[in-house]
Amino acid sequence: MKKDNNKKLFPKDFLWSASTSAYQFEGAWNVDGKGPSVQDINENIPEGTTDFKVTSDHYNHLEEDVKLLAELGLKAYRFSIAWTRIIPDGDGEINQKGIDFYNRLINLLIKHKIEPIVTMYHFDIPAKLEDKDGWSNPKTIDAFVRFAKILFENYGDRVKYWLTINEQNMIILVGQIIGMKMPKSDNYLKSLYQMNHYMMLAQSKTMKLCHDLLPNAKIGPAPNISAIYPASSKPEDQIAAMNMSCLRNWLYLDAAVRGIYNPTVIAWLKKNNAMFDIKPGDMDILKSGKPDFIAFNYYNTSTAKMPESGIIKDQLTSQQKLKIEPDFYEQVDNPNLGKTQFGWEIDPTGFRTTFRETYDRYGLPLLVTENGLGAYDEITKDFKIHDDYRIEYYTKHIQAMKDAIDEGVEVIGYSPWSAIDLVSTHEGIKKRYGFVYVNRDEFDLKDLKRYKKDSFFWYQNLIRTNGESL
Ligand code: BG6
């Protein structure tokens, strides 16, 4: 991929895109042969929050939604394929109606000259596989690779960009919050990283298979990556920030790109008697499948300090457990940053830092697969949505991305979250992200009509001018 030397412009073929995921957007959870995923039967949905059964009903608004994406001017569109639409129980019969649905979507996108970017797996493992221990069962590796093969065979003639697993790092670090079933075991930490190992093997095998079957396609992982700041200039806080970055970021990319496990994380697991089992040949598998680019989701940075000594993990509350790893790092607020209405820190400069650090470390082209602002949007009586706060958020983040490009980072595309309103992972439809408003409330489905927000017209103009309007 060539770099553009003109500082004022984004690269000529830059993929201006937008993202969704199947379980948060499609609805039609049990229609046309689809099997249930863990998300469809999730019983831990917080009170007052909708489930994932109807969501934005994209399944029944397909043509209308793709027309909106075309009007927005997208060069690419990132969506995920529901494993349970293709193989209802995860590893058995193929459901032709599921195959047909994504054929219709892909053909419509191509008709509108929109490049499809396909995520194979976005938090929605088939419930039937979960009954057999899901990702904790090594047989799920084969089930996933078979699913990937079916996707390559059916869509590989038209899909050039593939993403393996969305936010594997968030599944491991906060899976219970985003509706995943986590391993049950006396040695939870070991089981957790055993599950991570199986997912890594599935990913490497899939990347290899993609290259074997589709020599012109490109494939990459899609973790959530963000720079980690030390809370102070104390040397031990710098160590804490590095520790957190290894556990949160580099473990996943070192395995995907370099085919090795991050040494800091391995040392930490051993210290905690939680080293997972690696069978002979596993590391060869990890080395055999490599990505062509790194896709990553970015919402915010984190800040870490070294925790006080003597903290015992079992004595922490569940909230504290999410933030503190004894003798390793403690995540703290960053007083220099503002927050969204939902309490997420906002850090455009951290986006630039994340680009720089990731590119320096791996040297692969970068594709942003999520970035965006969740907010309580309001619709006026004349059906307008004045989301100037979202425009401000995007302006600053896209400028930061441009700064990184000007500093030499190779970025091939930007796919913000989300193209159209959808249901958040655990905070419902009230936490809106889209350029298009979907008229429904948490429990009142209303008419599900689509209305363009102010940010829709802003992004449309930005794409039309290839970023010059910034
Ligand atoms: C990412 C996920 O973590 O963040 C998306 O890939 C998710 O699925 C997005 O929706 C925003 O998070 P949330 O929790 O606000 O929906």
From TrEMBL:
SUPFAM superfamilies: (Trans)glycosidases. The gene is bglA. The active site is at E370 (nucleophile). This is 6-phospho-beta-glucosidase. Belongs to the glycosyl hydrolase 1 family. Keywords: Glycosidase, Hydrolase. InterPro entries: GH, GH_1_N_CS, Glyco_hydro_1, Glyco_hydro_1_AS. It holds the Pfam family Glyco_hydro_1. It comes from the Bacteria. Gene3D superfamilies: Glycosidases (3.20.20.80).
